[in-house]
Amino acid sequence: MSKKRTFVSIDDIINEPYGYTYKEISECMGESEAKRMFFSLYKEKNKNQHQTIKIHSVNKDGTGTQKYVFKLSDNNYIETVSIKRRNGTTACVSTMVGCPVGCIFCESGSNGFIRNLTPSEIVQQVVLLPKDVNRIVFMGMGEPLFNYDSLIKSIHILRDRNGLDFSTSGITVSTVGPLNQLKKLREEHIKIQLTLSLHATTQKVRNMIIPNMAKSDVNSTVESMLSYSERHNRKITIAYLLIPGVNDKVSDVDKLIKWFYGKNVMVNLLQYNPTNCGKFKRPNKQMLSDFKMKLEKGGLYVKIRESKGTNINAACGQLVSEYNKKKNLDSKKNANTCK
Questions:
Q1: In whole angstroms, what separates CA 292 from the centre of its chain?
Q2: What residues in the chain have per-residue pLDDT under 50?
Q3: Strands, E, within 242-334: which ranges?
């Protein structure tokens, strides 16, 4: 695909250096200056001179999970989570201030959609976390593919060999699956890991769970995900939040098996994390195990994902900054209506 070339000025780079690749900086400022700047951005301990976001607070849960509240230059706030693992740390990164999707189990859109993050703001979340980050998941505040250009640009910056040199196998994008963006992502030359927040097998139920994605046909969304998997030879993950009495029927089991049997797919079963949004029953471990067993009998590869950081409101669906205020009345149209 031909890509439109955008002009980058020296002032652009000086104001937002984390928003550019090594190649862009070297083409604008020369090789020696690019080396100096990238060393300053990604190797030096003191990076304050280049930061446009600041750590406002850090909450710890005592098990290695930490929630960072970042203050942006326009006085908005985002939340980012670092999760300690045996062999490194996972960074759960945000792509928006707020969210327009309105999932009924998620608080990220409770202040409405305020704005997209820039590539620089996305990259800085990773830079300002502990040094042993070796996995990045775009599962924080916002729908990553609705901020498509900034997402792709930030991935290229994170992958840059002169900087953090992240492997694409360590980068995961979690999405509700907007079709136009999924098709664009399929053609990108970046073989990232992809997770679909599915949560339903029928259009009616999915519209209830993810109301602002009603225009995206659920069958077409699944087809696009499978097409991405085949095109890039990647195992995709299907996130399925089990809601008793809503999406745990025999027909749901049958449809999931029909869609994913024999495909390069893992199903992740999720348990609802407490928020102000929830008006439905939380499945117990036995319910999750029973549903998992039914899917496994149908030949699917299934895991139950354990949430971390629930006691500091850092788990899936809990990220929302109390500091953000609604910017205007129009944001109410896109706000998650949970109260």
A1: 24
A2: 1-2, 309, 312-315, 317-319, 326-339
A3: 265-270, 301-304
Report pLDDT for 313.
46
Q: Interior CA angle at 333 toward 332 and 337, to 5°?
A: 65
What pLDDT does residue 279 have? 67
Residue 108: enclosing H or E segment and its boundaries? none
- Predicted local confidence at residue 325, as pLDDT: 54
Coil, strand or helix at 85: strand
Helices then strands, each counted (H, E), the chain: 10, 12
Q: What percent of the chain has pLDDT over 70?
A: 85
Domains parsed from the chain with CATH numbers:
1-50 (no CATH), 52-334 (3.20.20.70)
Q: What three-state secondary structure class fits 213?
A: helix
**Catalytic site residues?**
79, 316
**Exposure string for 16-43, b = 16+ CB within 10 A, e = fewer:** bbbbbbbebbbebbeeeebeebbeebbe
Burial of residue 122 (CB within 10 Å: 0-12, 13-18, 19+) is buried
